[in-house]
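Good morning C.,

I know you're traveling, so I'll keep this short. The sequence:
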Amino acid sequence: KFTWIVFLLLFSFFLIKRHSQSSPTNKMLVTTDSLIKPQGALNFLVVGDWGREGKDHQKPVAYQMGEVAAQLNADFIVTTGDNIYYNGVADEYDPLWKASFEDIYTAPSLQKNWYAVLGNHDYGKNPQGQVAYTKVSPRWKMPARYYTQTFNINGNAKQQVRLIFIDTNPLVPGYYKHPTLKHTVSTQDSTAQKAWLVQQLELAQKTPSVKWTFVVGHHPLFTATELRRESDDTRAIRGSLRKLFKKYQVDAYICGHDHDLQHLVNTEKIHLDCILTVVFFLLNKTTFAIVAHQ
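The tokens, ready to paste straight into the viewer:
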């Protein structure tokens, strides 16, 4: 498909320099000389499992996101779900939007579009409230529970990246019996979403300008962790999506849920990224680089 592809993983010991313990802020700083920014690349950040009212290291991570987004001139942010803990929001005016999002990601470099999908924790109350927030916040972009976005690489409409955002929650059978999730999950039509996904994958494959196709969801297909490696939800997502991704040559599946940072390549050469904190994607016509830190 391309002349060559480079995968680059730079972890925290390359990217982060800490203040001394005497520092009043004890923030983690990103060194300006360690970041790689290929000329003409599409740069975006990915974060998952994050909305905790500033707790559980959310604020330091948000600070680093702002620093790195400024240095890379990030084009946008992708969130892989579990956006608002622990049970999502009541509606688009829930105070948790301010406590877990607006008051946390305040850096000017993060005032870009945030493209979101839903996680299981977002299904506790009113998942449609996160779709509705698109009309409230100028940067929150979730026009539907599943949707697509296409981005030009370096402004070139003949070199594009297609991101397909899906809702993996209705694809997990166990959620239809879950005491907290069953009432909201049961309103969704998983068959209709799968048909839509096939249509979008076919379209991406037939579009000459689309050089990369990524799918973004919450649950992983594969994971290195023992807890979820063969869990019911992992096996359900793998059984539902694996053959489709292989058939339509999806370049990468980006997800969350597993609360760690992984980059896996399976036998179908699909790149599988589980995100807990932040990953930075850099794309151009021939190069797919991942610059990540925990």
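Safe travels,
E.
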